[in-house]
Structure formats: structure tokens, C-alpha cells
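Appendix B, Record 12. Input sequence as logged:
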Amino acid sequence: MERLIAGEKISVNTMKYQNDMTTFESADDVLTLLVHPGYLTTERRRWEMKRFFLAAVVFRWKI
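Logged structural output:
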């Protein structure tokens, strides 16, 4: 997640995603869930997610 905050582009393995919102076994599952609505697919929306992850780090949310 820190790499996203730093502005890096990362690869996400979407093949293991269970297609539900309750079964998360890896960071790839969480990122895949965010890819579906488009949060992580365009540069324009990237800043919105960057702010979310930054807040998660600052407030120590368990993602």
C-alpha cells in the first residue's frame, strides 16, 4: 500500500478474487475490489485513492 501512496504503479493479481466483499485473503483481493469500480484504473481517480490510503496510514486503519 505504501507504494501506491508513493505514486508507483503496481501489478494486481485479479485471478484469485472470490467476487464477494467479505472474503479477502491478500492485498491483491482488496486492490481487485477497488479496481472494479475504477478507483485504481485511471490517473484522475488515483489521487482520491492515494488520500484514502494516506489516511489509513496516518490513522492506522487495519485494511
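Residues 43-58 form the longest helix (16 residues).
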